Amino acid sequence: MKKADVVIIGGSAAGLTAAITARRHYPDKKILLVRKEKLVPIPCGIPYIFGTVGTPEKNLIPDTPLEKNNVEIMLDEVTAIDCGSLSLSTKSNETIQYGKLIIATGSHPMMPPIPGFEKENVFPVYKDVEHLTKMQKVMENAKKIVVIGGGFIGVEVSDEINKLEGKDVTICELLPHCLQLAFDEEFCEEAEKLLKERGVNIVSGSKVVSIEGKTKAEGVKIGDGSVLEADMVIVGIGTVANIDLAKNAGLRLGPTGSIWVDRTMRTSDENVFSCGDCAEKFSFFGGKPSKLKLASIASSEARIAGANLYGVQRESVGTIGVFSSAIGDHSFAVAGLSEKFAKEQGYDVITGVASGPNRHPGSMPGMMPQLVKLIFEKRTKVLIGTQMMGDKAVGELVNVASACIQHKMTIDDIACFQMGTHPALTASPVSYQYVNAAESALLKLS
Amino acid sequence: MKKADVVIIGGSAAGLTAAITARRHYPDKKILLVRKEKLVPIPCGIPYIFGTVGTPEKNLIPDTPLEKNNVEIMLDEVTAIDCGSLSLSTKSNETIQYGKLIIATGSHPMMPPIPGFEKENVFPVYKDVEHLTKMQKVMENAKKIVVIGGGFIGVEVSDEINKLEGKDVTICELLPHCLQLAFDEEFCEEAEKLLKERGVNIVSGSKVVSIEGKTKAEGVKIGDGSVLEADMVIVGIGTVANIDLAKNAGLRLGPTGSIWVDRTMRTSDENVFSCGDCAEKFSFFGGKPSKLKLASIASSEARIAGANLYGVQRESVGTIGVFSSAIGDHSFAVAGLSEKFAKEQGYDVITGVASGPNRHPGSMPGMMPQLVKLIFEKRTKVLIGTQMMGDKAVGELVNVASACIQHKMTIDDIACFQMGTHPALTASPVSYQYVNAAESALLKLS
Q1: pLDDT in tens, B284-312
Q2: What percent of chain B clears pLDDT 70, i.e. is strictly above it?
Q3: Do B396 and A397 touch (CB under 8 A)?
Q4: Tens digits of per-residue pLDDT, B88-140?
Q5: What are phi and psi of B327, to 5 degrees?
Q6: Residue A225 burial by Cβ neighbours in a 10 Å radius (0-12, 13-18, 19+)
Q7: What is the C-alpha to C-alpha distance for residues A66 and A73, in angstroms, rounded to an integer?
Q8: Do B289 and B260 contact (CB within 8 A), yes or no?
Q9: Residue B235 bridge partners (DSSP)
Q10: CB under 8 Å to B170, separation ≥6 — which residues?
Q11: In chain B, which residues have their Cβ closer than 8 Å to the Cβ of A45?
Q12: pLDDT-derived band of residue A235, with 50, 70 and 90 as boundaries?
């Protein structure tokens, strides 16, 4: 029988970060991480194996951080948790005794209940090297590829496939626009324009009815009766929390069906914590349940769970939702609520927009237009969301917004924001879009 | 006699931003901006005219923002302010009647009281197109160029000159290291290493004794008696506030000799405001007078001054000091206090450092190492400073720190920070340096 003070189930962003955090905060504890995968793909890097990065083996989370932090790794699959006896059973018939347990079992791709999804050459995007290798092999001989789902994964995978020689790739999206769950329409349209210019086909506002073909996929039939030809179909329509272990152990589930946790990331059992895609989340805005699943959220939650094992040190403020993506040299990013979603949630909003070059003077290398939209709650003037597009630095500029949202900065706070600027790195201090978007919102108040 | 509700003296970052802000907040007022320069250089862009940008004419603040905002421009030099009669006199004998006045007269280069600085081919860096054009002309025929002062301007100018064919450029710095007023030693050393690799010579810890030569500069004599050969000398050792107008008008001056203002940017006269390099500043940290002068600070102050003209809407929280620079593909940035300066100010500090790649996986394009150092006040655990180096996005990442400093975020706030990450844009969520630097500081507390 194995025994450890702290046992973590799962080795992706949440599990790894939880283990390192536990080590930092509890230097004397014996820590064991149990995972079933020999090789763990970097989740956000998966779309890039198809083009830029090349193979799944070049997109792995290394074991060195665990080794350096004296975390034991055990390759096995946990099959049951017994909260009463504080023990786990594994597939290879091991029993593991734990003092504190962190469940970081992640999520798996959602598959729609639509005829034909079981056919050959239809691939959900599993975070699994073997599966991804098989996808890549089939892709080599595929000419027409349809990607079902125009969210971040669908868009990124399509843009990467499009970089390969001789591929004809089409995104098939249910909503009127790609990326619409994250962005307001004007940003979706810009992203779609870029994708199309680069050669990605987009069929939006279209429900998938069935996958056509005998044993292999030959086409995707959509609502209007037409068929998008395909010799490979990739499905990226969302993910489902892996909760079976927790559920079978009698742990409480949350309103979205994920593992219930309180603000300290503790489950309904006092010795068991959970974080990442498998853990229930609540929104920073209004506190409703949130279905967002991101590696960045997972690692933030893991830093809370890992620190709280032997005494509460940190509490979650709820999920803000900060993410970014790139299409060629253009980057798109969002933090918090979109205007549309904020209104649907009942917020009375006021928005401000500013655009301009990301360099000063405009003749500096790397010049690109930058567009920033800020969304405020009208009465309190507190920032609740931002959307932006521009160069690669937008990936960090959006984190400025995240800090401002988390600390409830107001329109005036942001209008007087003390940013650093530089000709070769940022917009000019006079036209700095993030600040001027706040000023432009203010004008609408008066 | 001319008459306007709001008159702004000065047309650089502070004056321009103040004018636009005044227009935004007071749409019905007549606004007049008086400046002596026909063409206004972008102040931070000046180092780049020598290499990347090419000429001073390609580095100008356009008049279009003023025109669009219905701000009248008057090219003239204000020679006197009469606060009693609310009027200005100009060089061309105009009299201007104002309701509210904003003084944004900026600063001029400091010249040391050292023999030989009056010689030909010795150039301070005036923000003046004609002067800069002359510098560029002399530079064409100069082979050996010595830049006195290894602050941001000196470093940036030297790196740009070094890009030109056949130049031998040497920075001569009084302190042991370049950039030492902004950064701790380890960052200065990295910057110096890069500069040297690129071919810039650095002579540090050396006091300039005199400029040698008959009428033209031929060399710079330093403390140890040796002479750095030079057929051109550029001086970038700091700037002095332009306060003569304000002083002669009887306005109060602050402890550093700049124009005294309160938190609303109002001077000792109730109808006169001031902002930018000419205005006295106090530090966000401890409230002591601050000598920092940056275009980004100027524009933040201008957004306060411009909004407050007819009623207080905004107050300055004091100068944080956020700036960035680039050496080749490497960027350096700082917000708030360095460890050294914080200790000198009496803070009991605790620091955290983290380094790692700025991409995930590391094989993504644009991969560079990123280094982040965070400085916290030990008892309160509040962030008071950061220094970082890495890719161009560091120019925005430092603004995340600025937001966190301004809102007094603690080590734990930052350790649980909800950042957005992306393989092509940022470090991984697991190793995100800004967050892990906070975790590393925390370990030192226990």
Answers
A1: 999 999 999 999 999 999 999 999 999 99
A2: 100
A3: yes
A4: 999 999 999 999 999 999 999 999 888 999 999 999 999 999 999 999 999 99
A5: -125, 105
A6: exposed
A7: 8
A8: no
A9: B124, B148
A10: B144, B145, B146, B147, B158, B200, B201, B202, B203, B228, B230
A11: 360-361, 364, 423
A12: very high
In total, the C-beta contacts within 8 angstroms joining chain A to chain B are: 282
Is residue B331 within 8 A of residue B191, CB to CB? The reply is no
Beta carbons of B419 and A400 less than 8 angstroms apart: no
Mean pLDDT rounded to a whole number for chain B: 97
Contacts of B297 in chain A (CB under 8 A): 418
CA distance B190 to B170: 17
In this prediction, residue B78 has a pLDDT band, given cuts at 50, 70 and 90, of very high
Residue of A nearest to B56 (CA): A361
Mark yes or no for CB contact A406/B429 under 8 Å: no
Q: Which residue has the tokens 């190492």?
A: B369
- What distance, in Å, lies between the first and last C-alpha atoms of chain B? 70
CB-based contact A383:A408 (threshold 8 Å): yes
- Which of B16, B52, B364 is nearest residue A430 as measured by Cβ atoms? B16
pLDDT (tens digit per residue) in A335-390: 999 999 999 999 999 999 999 999 999 999 999 999 999 999 999 999 999 999 99
Tell me, letter by letter, the H, E, C secondary structure of B274-319: ECCCCECEEECCCCCEECCCCHHHHHHHHHHHHHHCCCCCCCCCCE
Q: Does residue B187 have a pLDDT over 90?
A: yes
CATH fold of the domain at B111-237: FAD/NAD(P)-binding domain (3.50.50)
A72 residue type, one letter? E
Average pLDDT over residues B370-388: 98
Work out the angle at residue B126's Cα, subtended by the Cα atoms of residues B124 and B128, and round it to the nearest 5 degrees.
Answer: 145
The domain defined by A322-445 carries CATH number 3.30.390.30: yes
CA A241 to chain centre: 13
Task: Say if strands A383-390 and A369-377 run parallel, antiparallel, or are unpaired.
Answer: antiparallel
In the block, residue with structure tokens 């006169």: B272
Q: What is the DSSP letter of B7?
A: E
Contacts of B392 in chain A (CB under 8 A): 366, 391-393, 424-425
Q: Residue A223's pLDDT band (boundaries 50, 70, 90)? A: very high
B202, B193 Cβ separation under 8 angstroms = no
- CATH number, domain A2-108+240-308: 3.50.50.60
Q: How far apart are alpha carbons A128 and B394 in whole angstroms?
A: 33
* pLDDT tens digits, one per residue of A264-308: 999 999 999 999 999 999 999 999 999 999 999 999 999 999 999
Residue B191: which residues within 8 A CB-CB, separation 6 or more?
B155, B178, B179, B183, B327, B332, B389
pLDDT of residue A443: 87
Establish whether domains A2-108+240-308 and A111-237 are of one fold. Answer: yes
Q: Do A409 and B404 touch (CB under 8 A)?
A: no
- For residues A307 and A283, is the Cβ–Cβ distance under 8 A? no
**pTM for this entry:** 0.97
CA distances in angstroms from A412 to B273, B303, B323, B354, listed in the order given: 19, 10, 22, 33
Residues 6+ apart with CB under 8 A from A93: none
Look up the ipTM and state it: 0.96
- Interface mutation vs chain A, best among B396, B407, B417, B425, most A CBs within 10 Å: B396
Ordered by start, the domain boundaries in chain A are 2-108+240-308, 111-237, 322-445
pLDDT band at B345, cuts 50/70/90? very high
Q: Name which of A126, A81, A133 is nearest A106 in CA terms.
A: A126
pLDDT band at B257 (very low <50, low <70, confident <90, very high): very high
